[in-house]
Amino acid sequence: MTTPQAARTPVIEVSDLSVRFPSLDSGSEVRAVDGVSFSISQGETLGIIGESGSGKSTIGRTLVGLLEPSDGELVFDGRSSASMSRREWRARRRAFQMIFQDPDAALNPRMTILQSLVEPMKIAGGRSAAEMRDIALESLEKVGLRRDMAQRYRHELSGGQKQRVNIARILPLDPKLVVCDEVVAALDVSIRGEVLNLFREVQKELGLAYAFIAHDISVVAQISDRIAVTYLGRFVELGGTDDIIDRSLHPYTVALLSAEPQPLPPELRHRKRMVLEGDIPSPANPPSGCRFHTRCPWATALCAEKDPEWRELRPGHHVACHHTTPEGLPPQPADRRPPTD
Ligand SMILES: Nc1ncnc2c1ncn2[C@@H]1O[C@H](COP(=O)(O)OP(=O)(O)OP(=O)(O)O)[C@@H](O)[C@H]1O
After folding, report:
1. Is 312 in a helix, a strand, or coil?
2. What is the rounded CA–CA span in Å between residue 255 and residue 50?
3. Please, what is the end-to-end C-alpha distance for the chain in angstroms?
4. ipTM exceeding 0.85?
5. What are phi and psi of 76, to 5 degrees?
6. C-alpha 139 – ligand 1 centre gap (Å)
7. I need a surface site. Which of 76, 100, 105, 234 has the fewest CB within 10 A?
């Protein structure tokens, strides 16, 4: 579902974003996000994939203002977040919303669904109680739920229904960007497709931009126009979904794709298996040079010494790897190939 990014208005432009946390164990800082740049356009979905701990949620939380950047700049509507007044900041908080993996997270168990739907509108202000009620009920219908669901409580709904309510909650706020953090991961596999379709329909109707975070590539590939692959706080590859899936340029992307559990979705079936050995190193003490070199079958002495440049090897397709070329990676060195069965 690749859509050309050209000529669309960026909703957000992120330059050289870094987010650091104090580390309790090592005394040094955890570089959760370390120099990441991208933009997301109106109506576009940017998928963000990577193993656990690679910085995906930290990027998402920073986009919606739940975390402050340690370095770098976020620009939306041509304005840098650093130069914003309190009023502009509040408007941004409303325009940039987040939906979490846990469908219960934003729903108060003591409130009816109607109260949960009205709550964000109350905070935003400017509408009468009757207006808020009507809008809440309309929003329920927009996400495919009956109006009488409004009188129920959280525990009376299935996971899929709760995630629909979470979408309905943000619709009246007229968001521009929604960060979707593992939004279908907690749902039964049988209803994931339905909920993903709903995300797509809502996007089309409202022209929303999504940052769609997940570690399940087949989910991200179904909904994203472009995909960013994260490793230890950095992007290692960014490109159109078809390019990332069919013409991957980075060894880590190749490994992630080949690690998909069987049976592979049709778009990944031609992939050979490449087993990624070792754990992801600590972001408090990342490896020198290319951060992936400790696990990379293509790694040479150069990779341990020198950080690879972020290069656009094909139009709109960026990668950070010393060895890859516009044609892709060279054959895997024979001495590092996994044994064949
Ligand atoms: N508030 C925090 N304080 C200290 N370290 C943090 C904090 N939040 C995240 N981290 C660390 O930052 C790194 C990136 O975490 P993050 O949650 O962004 O990764 P992720 O890719 O979203 O992982 P997951 O898929 O498990 O959610 C991890 O090493 C994590 O332990």
Report:
1. strand
2. 11
3. 35
4. yes
5. -135, 145
6. 33
7. 105
Q: pTM of the prediction?
A: 0.91
Dihedral sign, Cα of residue 250, residue 255, residue 260, residue 265 = positive
CA of 59, closest atom in ligand 1: 18
List of E strands, the chain: 10-22, 29-41, 45-49, 71-76, 79-80, 96-99, 177-181, 209-213, 226-231, 234-240, 311-314, 317-319
Tokens, residue 271: 């992939």
**Ligand 1: which residues within 6 Å by Cβ?**
21, 30, 32, 50, 52-58, 215, 283
Q: pLDDT tens, 284-303? A: 889 999 999 999 999 999 99
Ligand 1 centroid – CA 28 distance (Å): 15
Minimal-distance CA residue to ligand 1 atom 1: 21
Report all structural domains of the chain as residue ranges with CATH numbers, in order of start.
Answer: 10-249 (3.40.50.300)
Please give the backbone phi and psi of residue 335, each rounded to the nearest 5 degrees, phi first: -75, -10
Question: pLDDT digits over 207-226, tens only?
Answer: 999 999 998 898 999 999 99
Residue 312's DSSP bridge partners are 318
CA distance 37 to 312: 13
Alpha carbon of 284 to those of 27, 48, 214, 305: distances in Å?
A: 9, 21, 23, 18
CA distance 205 to 224: 17
Q: DSSP assignment, residue 111?
A: S
Give the distance (Å) from ligand 1 centre to CA of residue 333. Answer: 33
- DSSP-derived 3-state class of residue 229: strand
Q: Which residue has the tokens 């701990």?
A: 53
